[in-house]
Design a protein that fits this description.
five-stranded mixed beta sheet; single chain; Penicillin binding protein transpeptidase fold; five-stranded antiparallel beta sheet; 717 residues; alpha+beta; 2 domains; Beta-lactamase; 38% helix
Length: 717
């Protein structure tokens, strides 16, 4: 008996120890859990990729997509997601979602065991756990018991502090669905070409099925398609089991037709140049690349889709097929009243590996710079009847050698209208000396030409002749000043930016009064004569007045035509990669009044179609009293008084004996080398004629190193 009693007592003592040990262990675990709970807050930051939204860049209409940048995700509210889509996701991923505490003990135990034993990490995570892992910073996809335990704690805390609908909304906007689509809205567009609100039951079920294996089910074929169908059917059946669908509804559903996957968004033609300029301007305005790629911005540009196409057509239609590959063409169109760059042509993509011909390439302005000199003079006490020295050559004290006119032709003492119409070099050098080169530089800078591009040449006597290098956009922007009555609007390519929260920032360009309204009107009047009677007749538009200026540098290394109507300012230039003469087989050496003027006319004919005809302001009254007379033309012709603007017959009638303007092909008067009348062959003096050091010629191998700005190194002509 005693022996039996002793054994019973020992058993009770052992049981007591075991119970105490178990209790102690439980208390320790509870304590540890409490400590871990206290030390594991919900992270206050999210993973950038979890909430990142790509930006969409539009043409100026705000509807036509130009480009997409960054992560393909468009956030939607949970209310925008149909109930059957939500039910499908819950049935596929976490049927107890609305009832559990944010974790699945069974699934978590299985995942922990597989991690401890070194087996492949298995599923079992709830929607809340998946959200925590993909949404919050500090968890990522690390495979460890510590990470899993931390995930569980945070999931439980999120479940306590956030509503189930909040969790589901973040999950649907965070999860990756394949095809590059992040979030259910982008997935709906990628798989079915529609917004999430429009998804059918079958389509919603397929997106739920994709979550498990997004890469495999993105574009399934063969055995993958069979697996995708099986997975889709299991989701439909699960919706029947959860009551989301009746058995009859579940049985009636058929596998949806998947949209053919789209290739990644590719930029073609001029679009890459547009994107580069938009990105650069956004950076200047304080938007980082991260903002652009993940900030969900809606960016509306200034580019008009139809005018962009018109610019491409104008160049393609006018330039002959045998144009040498090294010949580049740039075109830029600016709205004078807003400064918006509405269109441009940056060159053939195969040609422009390093820079575009409209924004980035900078070549000598040639005689297109003379209107800045004219405007500076007219704004500083001179008038159109002012006489300047048009004789050749002209000696200036500050210049080592005399400066000649083209062909060494002398014009005598001529007024500023005649000087502009005939692009007389010596007249503008004389005018620059009279008004002061500092004032010329100040006017050009105020009109949008960067000071750095003028600095090296602005003290040279030849400065008014366009020895500084400018881009097509800068020159179009500068001429827009005259069209806008002397006020320069900052050139820009972004109209507005709307962030992911809907806050819209409208770009407000800087406005600068460059010259007086009357000085602008008089400058414009002089340039109208260039198009009517001078070197730019190939740019005439017969339904409306045009003002403009040709430009041809020494040896035709760069050739220009800049012109405008009151509604639009456009610059066209041509130059070569290797700084050689711009020559086209069958068309010969080019001048500004030839192919550049014809490209300008082709573009403006389309751009102005249907637009109201607007007249330029009248020039100063003193012009009529002093009687500007037309100088003798290169092909002969009597002197005559200029017609007063406003008489439509005078605007449209060509100078007697000149005939119609050239067509888009080579002028009939040209020979094999395109030799036109003398006034079309304006050339600026070579470096030996100017008080400027000669610069090294541009070599083709320099292009890799200097890229965008290499054209600035060409010799000053």
């Amino acid at each position: 008996m005693r022996s039996g009693g002793g054994k019973g007592m020992r058993k009770r003592r052992i049981l007591r120890v075991v119970l105490i040990s178990i209790g102690t262990g439980i208390l320790v675990l509870v304590g540890l859990f409490a400590v871990a709970w206290a030390l594991t807050p919900i992270p206050d930051t999210t993973q950038k990729q979890a909430t990142a939204q790509g930006s969409v860049i539009y043409y100026r209409d705000g509807k036509s997509v130009l480009a997409r940048q960054g992560v393909d995700r468009r956030r939607v509210d949970l209310a925008q997601v149909p109930k059957h889509v939500r039910d499908a996701v819950i049935a596929a991923e976490n049927r107890s979602f609305y009832d559990d505490a944010g974790v699945s003990l069974k699934g978590t135990a299985r995942a922990v065991w597989s991690t401890v034993t070194g087996q492949q990490l298995q599923g079992g995570s709830t929607i809340t756990q998946q959200l925590v892992r993909n949404y919050y910073s500090g968890l990522s996809q690390e495979r460890s018991v510590t990470r899993k335990f931390k995930e569980i704690l945070i999931a439980m805390k999120v479940d306590q502090s956030k509503s189930k609908d909040w969790v589901l909304e973040q999950y649907l906007n965070t999860i990756y669905f394949g095809r590059g689509a992040n979030g259910v809205q982008s997935a709906a567009r990628a798989y079915f070409g529609k917004d999430v609100e429009e998804l059918s039951v079958a389509e919603g079920a397929y997106l739920a099925a994709v979550i498990q294996q997004p890469s495999r089910f993105a574009d399934p074929k063969g055995s993958d398609l069979a697996a995708a169908r099986a997975r889709w059917r299991s989701v439909i059946d699960a919706m029947g089991q959860t009551g989301a669908l009746t058995p009859q509804q579940a049985a009636a559903e058929t596998f949806p037709e998947l949209r053919v996957p789209k290739k990644p968004f590719e930029l073609k033609g001029q679009a890459q140049y547009m994107l580069e300029q938009v990105t650069a301007e956004l950076n200047r305005r304080g938007y980082t690349d991260e903002d652009i790629n993940s900030g969900g911005l809606k960016i509306v540009t200034t580019f008009d889709k139809k005018l962009m196409q018109a610019a491409q057509r104008a160049v393609d239609d006018v330039l002959p097929d045998n144009t040498p590959k090294k010949v580049r063409t740039g075109l830029a169109a600016v709205d004078p009243g807003t400064g918006e760059v509405v269109a441009f042509y940056g060159g053939r993509p195969s040609q422009s590996q390093y820079y575009d011909s409209a924004f980035s390439a900078k070549v000598m302005a040639g005689s297109t710079f003379k209107p800045y000199t004219l405007a500076a003079a007219l704004d500083n006490g001179f008038d159109l009847s002012t006489r300047v020295d048009g004789n050749s050559p002209l000696r200036v004290a500050s210049a080592a050698q005399a400066i000649p006119n083209d062909g060494d032709r002398s014009y005598g003492q001529i007024n500023l209208v005649s000087a502009t119409q005939n692009s007389v070099n010596t007249a503008f050098v004389d005018l620059g000396q009279k008004v002061g080169l500092d004032k010329v530089a100040k006017t050009a800078e105020a009109a949008g030409i960067p000071a750095a591009q003028l600095e090296k040449q602005k003290s040279a006597a030849s400065f008014p002749l366009g020895v500084s290098s400018v881009s097509a956009v800068q020159n179009a922007s500068g001429f827009s000043t005259f069209a806008n009555k002397g006020v320069h609007m900052e050139a820009h390519v972004v109209r507005s930016v709307t962030d992911a929260e809907g806050h819209k920032e409208v770009v407000k360009p800087a406005s600068t009064r460059v010259v007086s309204e009357q000085a602008a009107a008089d400058t414009t009047f002089a340039m109208q004569q260039v198009v009517k009677y001078g070197t730019g007749t190939a740019a005439r538009l017969y339904d409306r007045p045009v003002a403009g200026k040709t430009g041809t540098t020494d040896d035709s290394r760069s050739v220009w035509f800049n012109g405008f109507t009151p509604q639009l300012a456009v610059a066209v230039n041509m130059f070569r990669d290797d700084n050689a003469t711009v020559s086209i087989p069958g068309y010969g050496t080019q001048f500004g009044g030839q192919l550049p003027a014809q490209i300008w006319r082709a573009f403006m004919t389309e751009a102005m179609a249907g637009k109201p005809v607007e007249e330029f302001p009248e020039p100063s009254e003193f012009g009529w009293s002093s009687g500007y007379s037309q100088p003798e033309r290169g092909m002969g012709g009597p002197d005559r008084t200029y017609p007063r603007p406003g008489n439509q017959d005078d605007w449209d009638s060509p100078e007697p004996g000149t005939g119609p303007p050239p067509s888009s092909g080579p002028p009939a008067t040209q020979g094999p080398r395109g030799d036109g009348p003398p006034e079309e062959q304006e050339e600026e003096p070579s470096p030996s004629d100017l008080d400027l050091p000669a610069q090294p010629s541009l070599q083709e191998e320099d292009t890799v190193d200097d890229g965008r700005d290499r054209q600035e190194r060409q010799p000053a002509r």
